[in-house]
Amino acid sequence: MKIVRSVLFAAVLASVSFAQSDVYLTNNSNLPDLKMPENNLAFKEIEGYQNYKIIATHFRTDKNEIRYILANPLAYNALRNHEKIMPEGSKVVKIGWSVKKMPKWPGALEADKIQRVEYMIKNRATCRLQKTTYNLS
């Protein structure tokens, strides 16, 4: 099952990277240096997210969006070990895509365009889990 999810995620990322002109979302070396004014959290802090492990997927009917939730090794291991407190440096990234019907299989949906990227980082300096959302639609 893990291999199937990895292959599915790789296929979705590949289709998005070819269909999407937003290179900074598919090419990690070009992440923009954006900072959110309310918490000063930088987009570059999730560099390497392509190598994070998938921890969940879901479909939001209210937003017509498929989402993949990924975790860096620190967060992944904490979740896997059922730890109640995430360790310092834990990062969780949610990527949401709009969906469209598949041309050759109209009964199925496929990822279309990236709609949003959300991420959370455990940071003791702020004594809280910081969360940021970038809406791209």
Produce the secondary structure layout:
Layout: H1 2-19, H2 23-26, E1 53-60, E2 65-71, H3 73-80, E3 91-102, E4 105-123, E5 128-135
Antiparallel strand pairs: 1-2, 2-3, 3-4, 4-5
**Rough shape?**
globular
Percent in helix: 10-25%
Distance between the termini: 32 Å
Mean pLDDT: 76
Q: Report the major sheet.
A: 5 strands, antiparallel
Q: What is the CATH class?
A: Alpha Beta
Instruction: Please indicate the count of domains.
Output: 1
Order of helices and strands: HHEEHEEE
As residue ranges, the low-confidence spans are: 4-28
Task: Order the strands across the largest sheet as they lie in space.
Answer: 1-2-3-4-5
Rg calc: 15 Å
Characteristics:
alpha+beta; 137 residues; 5 strands; 5-stranded antiparallel β-sheet; Chalcone isomerase; 3 helices; single chain; globular
Descriptive report:
- The chain has one domain: 3-Layer(bba) Sandwich (Chalcone isomerase).
- Helix content is 22%, strand content 39%.
- The chain has helices at residues 2-19, 23-26, 73-80, and strands at 53-60, 65-71, 91-102, 105-123, 128-135.
- The chain has a 5-stranded antiparallel sheet.
- The protein is globular.
- The termini are far apart.
Q: Summarize this, please?
A:
The protein is α+β, with helices and mostly antiparallel strands. It has helices spanning 2-19, 23-26, 73-80, and strands spanning 53-60, 65-71, 91-102, 105-123, 128-135.
